[in-house]
Design brief:
It is a single chain. With about 425 residues, the protein is α/β, with parallel strands linked by helices. It has 2 domains: about 290 residues, 7-stranded beta/alpha barrel (Alpha-Beta Barrel), CATH 3.20.110; about 90 residues. About 45% of the residues lie in helices and about 10% in strands. The strands form 2 sheets. Strands 1, 2, 3, 8 and 9 form a 5-stranded parallel beta sheet that branches. Strands 4-5-7-6-10 form a 5-stranded mixed beta sheet. A hairpin with a 2-residue loop joins strand 6 and strand 7. Helix 1 packs parallel to helix 9. It is globular, with a radius of gyration of 23 Å.
């Protein structure tokens, strides 16, 4: 009897709030950090090229293959906010898709931040806040977490398990797996209640990155050829995790490349020519038996060839900006200014540090995507100017708190005492 095998198809949806130009001489004038016009125009562009056509196509596939075609999404709080403010049509289409029984919505950090690397409490607060937004917009309570940029470590696994999630997504990095295959369900070694779905980066990247490369010797990629590769996987490996940015469809790979035709044809080719079925992350956790325990003492991500943190941290610019940001966290925790809290969330987004990356060659090309700066140094200077102004506003707001408390106490003392009457 042939053992049933599964494909877990997952998409990440995120757009940051990009900063506007903020000069040294703007420090002290306060606020107005984000370029609303640029953010609006980019979201409109991505919506027309990707979010609307891809989401409507997935709706069609969900109707055409009820209970058989399945996929999962995670949305950063940043992109959901922007859709609410700038492009309600995209949000509406995602909400329609989320009503389909084969679609799962995952948890992640609200700010698409690197908070898990520096502050457990900030990480947990952001994930809980994100869950609240997902429940409000999609009427779903996430059970599986996908951390920012698929960043995972044993420490982050322990945080996640303690919060009650049943599983996490992570990168199937060769340096961690060694001879092991990513095509099994695993559990975290230090948190065995937490299931791990590891990305098959070779097959995922065939779609996400190599699909339209003119010098790729396997191109053009068709659904039938892709299923042939799936069938070549050893029969005892039951789970193929295909994880990618949603912008793969229509933005990274333009419609003219045939990427939408590939996606449209994939389910039929899978059902017609293989024994694979589609599965959501939560279903994989409930249906499959873990093959082994996995330990990742140091953080692993899905970025670049190194699968490490060097896209966001590691050079002096990134580290200085990152440390300067989180040095303010305790003060932000004491602040009750709503606008400061909103700016704090937006300033944590990992893209700000991504723009400061000084890596070159093949990896460097990826870092140019929707990058508003001409150089990483320009990104650093602009961010630090904003952060200097933010710190001034923060300290000013905190300094006003004792005065406000004193005024409140004076007002209470001025209220005449009323005797109790029964």
């Amino acid at each position: 009897m042939t053992t049933k095998r599964y494909i877990c198809l997952y998409f990440q949806v995120h757009q940051p709030y990009r900063l506007g130009r903020f000069r040294y001489f703007d420090i002290g004038r306060g606020g107005g950090y984000f370029d609303d016009e640029k953010n609006r125009s980019i979201l409109e562009k991505v919506s027309q090229k990707c979010y609307l056509p891809a989401t409507r196509l997935l709706q069609e596939l969900s109707v055409a293959y009820p209970d058989r075609f399945k996929c999962a999404f995670s949305f950063s709080g940043m992109v959901l906010e922007q859709m609410m403010h700038f492009h309600a049509e995209s949000l509406s289409e995602f909400q329609k898709l989320a009503t389909m029984p084969g679609v799962e919505i995952l948890a992640e950090t609200y700010s698409h931040s690197l908070s898990a690397l520096v502050s457990r409490s900030e990480f947990e607060q952001q994930v809980k806040r994100h869950d609240g937004l997902v429940e409000m917009l999609f009427s779903r309570k996430p059970r599986v977490l996908r951390n920012t940029e698929l960043i995972y470590s044993d420490e982050i696994a322990a945080y996640t398990a303690a919060m009650g999630y049943s599983g996490m997504l992570a990168e199937g990095a060769d340096r961690i797996l060694g001879w092991k295959s990513p095509n099994y369900l695993y559990v975290a070694k230090n948190a065995p209640t937490l299931g791990l779905l590891l990305k098959n980066y070779r097959l995922s990247d065939d779609i996400a990155f190599r699909f339209s490369q003119p010098d790729w010797n396997e191109g053009p990629l068709t659904a039938e050829k892709f299923v042939h590769w799936l069938n070549a996987i050893p029969e005892d490996e039951p789970l193929v995790n295909l994880f990618m940015d949603y912008e793969t469809f229509g933005e990274h790979q333009w419609a003219e490349s045939g990427i939408f035709d590939f996606l449209r044809a994939l389910p039929d080719a899978v059902f017609r020519y293989s024994d694979f079925e589609f599965i959501t992350p939560s279903e994989a956790l409930s249906k499959l038996k873990p093959a082994d325990k996995i330990s990742m003492p140091e953080p692993v991500s899905w970025a670049d060839e190194a699968r490490d943190l060097s896209a966001w941290l590691g050079n002096p610019l990134q580290d200085d900006a990152f440390e300067s940001l989180y040095r303010l966290r305790s003060m932000v925790s004491d602040c009750r200014d709503e606008q400061i809290q909103k700016d704090w969330q937006k300033l944590q987004t990992s893209d700000h540090f991504y723009y400061m990356c000084t890596k070159f060659f093949a990896d460097g090309d990826v870092h140019k995507y929707f990058n508003p700066y001409d150089s990483p140094y320009e990104a650093f200077v602009n961010y630090m100017n904003v952060l200097a102004d933010f710190e001034l506003r923060l300290k000013s707001s905190l300094a006003a708190i004792p005065k406000q408390r004193k005024q409140l106490t004076t007002q209470k003392q001025a209220v005449p005492h009323r005797a109790h009457t029964d």
